[in-house]
Design brief:
12 helices, 4-stranded parallel β-sheet, binds pyridoxal-5'-phosphate, alpha/beta
């Protein structure tokens, strides 16, 4: 194992102001926090969710990370790469059946040294039960089991390091489980506001889950800054049909946005949030003078698989 004392990529995400006529008309300043370009493979919010999980593994002298994900998972991709970079053995429990040849996400994971096992959907649903976790510990020896998406309190804690500036009034990001949003809410000043854009249908169900993350984090005794905890809300109208669903409008928007601002977007998460923000700007949703920070949470690795499914290659 390499000796790494502190899990850092040594790179800070940049904040990129963007020039947009729509924002100008709305009297709003737009900037993008580029978590997508911190490291070629270990980047995005998934890196922040992993950081304290790696630290826990190190502290407990565990040399293997075991985690769960779908076949296109950004979290599987990041765990495989981070494990390789920081000297952990990695095991990926993949939902569903093996399909060969492996898709780009899974073949990358294997190249990084991840061992893959396939779990049928019924069994996959039990992934958080103590019974299945005990079975995995018995099968693989002492391993650190990280939940799907890196969503645990270590993950929330890492996401509290994503935004460390008060120069913005409103922070926007795409939500899957809402864990990242919980970390952002906990770390922002109480005068700031966070807006989550669920990428799943009927995203309202996330509100009580985010409340739970906040409550559990605050009850855990982990650190919180003075005067922290932002107000927050969810905007659930931009899922475009549901998780990993896309339509022509979204694809067109994404291509045009990339051309105009030289910022690539992923179709599953960030494109939907950026689309939503641009649409809300046109409607005058944000107060004039608002300084907006849009978090680019990464996920670009998934575009290769998505474009293949859309038959672009
Ligand atoms: C996983 C992911 C999200 C969602 O994060 P949650 O903490 O589950 O809400 C957003 N954007 C990208 C690119 C992701 O990979």
């Amino acid at each position: 194992m390499h000796s790494v004392n502190y899990f850092s990529l040594g790179l800070l995400p940049t904040i990129q102001p963007i020039n947009s006529a729509i924002a100008q008309q709305a009297g709003v300043e737009l900037s993008v926090l580029r978590l997508d370009c911190m490291h070629p493979w270990v980047n995005g919010n998934k890196w922040f969710k992993l950081k304290y999980n790696l630290q826990e593994a190190k502290q407990r002298n565990l040399t293997t990370l075991l985690t769960f994900g779908g076949a296109y998972s950004n979290h599987i991709f990041a765990t495989a790469a981070a494990g390789n970079l920081f000297g952990f053995r990695t095991i990926g429990m993949i939902r569903g059946e093996e399909t060969l040849p492996l898709n780009p996400t899974l073949s990358f994971a294997v190249q990084q040294g991840m061992q893959l096992f396939y779990v049928n959907r019924d069994k996959y649903r039990e992934r958080q039960t103590t019974a299945l976790q005990a079975e995995l510990q018995q099968r693989f020896g002492e391993v650190l089991i990280i939940p799907e998406g890196g969503s645990n309190l270590n993950g929330v804690r890492g996401c509290m390091e994503i935004v460390n500036t008060r120069e913005f009034d409103t922070v926007c990001l795409a939500c899957g489980t809402g864990t990242t949003l919980a970390g952002i809410i906990l770390s922002l000043h109480k005068s700031q506001r966070a807006i989550g854009f669920p990428v799943l249908k009927n995203g309202r169900f996330l509100a009580p889950e985010i409340d739970n993350w906040l409550r559990n984090y605050l009850a855990s005794g982990l650190p919180v800054a003075d005067e922290a905890i932002a107000s927050w809300e969810l905007i659930c109208d931009y899922h475009m049909g549901g998780y990993a669903k896309v339509n022509d409008e979204l694809l067109q928007f994404s291509q045009q946005f990339t051309q105009e601002h030289d910022i690539p977007l992923d179709y599953v998460y960030t494109a939907k949030m950026f689309y939503g923000v641009m649409d809300l700007l046109k409607q005058g949703f944000f107060p004039r003078g608002d300084r907006l920070l849009l978090i680019h949470t990464g996920g670009l690795q998934g575009n290769i698989g998505m474009e293949k499914r859309l038959n672009w290659h």
